[in-house]
Amino acid sequence: MEMVSTVQNTDVKQSLQKVNERLLEKNPAESLLFDVVLIATDSQQQSSRIISSTSHYGLEVGRFCFSSREDLVETLVVNNVQLFLSTDRDEALQVSQKGVLSALLGRQEAPSESLRVMLCGDAIVRPDCDPVPASRGAAQSFSARLGEMRGRFGVSGSPLSIVLVTSSGGSKSCGVALQTLRSRGLSVDEAYCLAGAPRGPILSLLRPHFLLGDGVIDLED
Amino acid sequence: MVKMSLDPVQVKELNVSPSPNGDSRASWEEEEVEEEEEDRLGIATKTKPPKPENAVTVAVSSRVLFRTELEQRVFEQKGVEEYLRYQIEHENEPFAPGPAFPFVKALETVNARLRELYPQSEELFDIVLVTYNHAHVGIRLINTINHHNLFIERFCMTGGSSPIGYLKAWQTNLYLSADADKVREALAEGIAAATMFMTEKLTEVSESQLRVAFDGDAVLFSDESERIFKAHGLDKFFQHEQDNEDTLLDHGPLKGFLEALGKLQKKFYAKGQRLDCPIRTYLVTARSAASSGIRALKTLRAWGLEIDEALFLAGAPKGPMLEKIRPHIYFDDQMFHVEGAAEMGTVAAHVPYGVAQKHNQPQKPGARK
């Protein structure tokens, strides 16, 4: 069971749900699914509001968890969270430094057809330059699971899309990243090699739901 | 074969072995070590691609840069999954050069000369591979790029979605593709674009000088005169051109690219290399020098664009003239001329713009302006 924890952002949750639906369509006994845990670190007063708005949007949230900021990492570990998503950059960075893989949520202006997961290839090619080495192991195992999940679907019409972006290296680096990911069982759908070009224009077209493997960077960069 | 000079700029006395662009790459490990060395020593042993806003960006699709007919057939006959499986199976077999290949090589030759004269400048050609191929084909494409010693460090493999947005993001100055629909989309977005086709016959082209040839109407200029010709015939056309001799023609889709070439040419002239300039441009038009051609020349002059050679054919077929010029690429809005050029071994690219697109049949030779 994949475990993902999210705060806010209904499109991500809907896209995650869609992946689960399609997986179950293919195999009703499928166990490799996204499990969404909603963690609220605000005060208790928010709790009933969160629960009611979640059902309002028809979102199947598996669990609710209320945690204080200080206990956040422990809560994540206790719940065996494999990926923590947040809109708060500092929060995500703090969590990843403690070894739990985290990513920033992208801003979605329009609903998308698939869950778009972006991987930053630079950290894959040069692990020594990884800004958050603590969560590197978590990143590798998550990407292997993601690869397994992606493999359940065909090339076209998949509810899950894997996008690779390399920012600084040239085409050879990107090739190394593609090879490395493939050896971990993760096949990439789209690949963009920027070789030093500004990320902004390309990222705004790619509209990922979240970005992995870059430590934690600003998706609006 | 002109080898691109990639000698490192030696800043300190260090034992840095230059990375010549000569040996073909075999293993991935080699590359990784090289790049790590580059980082450790802090000196770029390879040249870095320029920022998009400074460069003349040429985006090419994989089907025009390389020959992929066999793989296309697999896709058409057996579907996408089989196509990708085939590609992965043949990953270590590089593709053969396609119709845009000599053009891209010539761009790199110009870059080498520009770097010699202006080592700090980013005003260079930047070649980006923009393909809606799936990333599964990525490794084979990268292997092919390495095999042919192409300096293509940037690419977009969109996995099926439209590449047009990315063209704008890269500030593309010219887009070359095998897909006419994509080319039309790009033109509609104001990006110079043309469709390329593979031909069996290819005449040899220069390895030291980039030669680009343009048709006039509906390529460099708007299609207004063609409209008159098509609606009212040759005589009316002549009359109209004479009456409007001093009125500038409106610009066409490739004007901007000619302008970009002109800017680079001036950089060579500034260093006293006018005679030896590695860029040469040609106008190859069916207009005639004595009459309708004057308006074309006046327009170019008013735009501040220098074209090296203007060839007014007065209706004669373009093929033989192009065969003499040997451009790396020739842009025309009429398939009739594109096919005629290809028959004689010239790489011609179709610009699907203007009124000529409604008339798809080949024209009678001689009944032209």
UniProtKB/TrEMBL annotation, chain A:
One of its GO terms (biological process) is nucleotide metabolic process. GO terms for molecular function: 5'-nucleotidase activity; magnesium ion binding; nucleotide binding. It comes from Gasterosteus aculeatus aculeatus. Transmembrane segments: none annotated. This is Cytosolic 5'-nucleotidase 1A-like. InterPro entries: 5-nucleotidase (IPR010394). PANTHER family: CYTOSOLIC 5'-NUCLEOTIDASE 1 FAMILY MEMBER (PTHR31367), CYTOSOLIC 5'-NUCLEOTIDASE 1A (PTHR31367:SF3). GO terms for cellular component: cytosol.
From TrEMBL, chain B:
Residues 1-52 are annotated as: Disordered. InterPro entries: 5-nucleotidase. One of its GO terms (molecular function) is 5'-nucleotidase activity. Residues 29-39 have a biased composition (Acidic residues). GO terms for biological process: adenosine metabolic process; nucleotide metabolic process. One of its GO terms (cellular component) is cytosol. It comes from the Eukaryota. Pfam families: 5-nucleotidase. This is 5'-nucleotidase, cytosolic IAa. It comes from Gasterosteus aculeatus aculeatus.
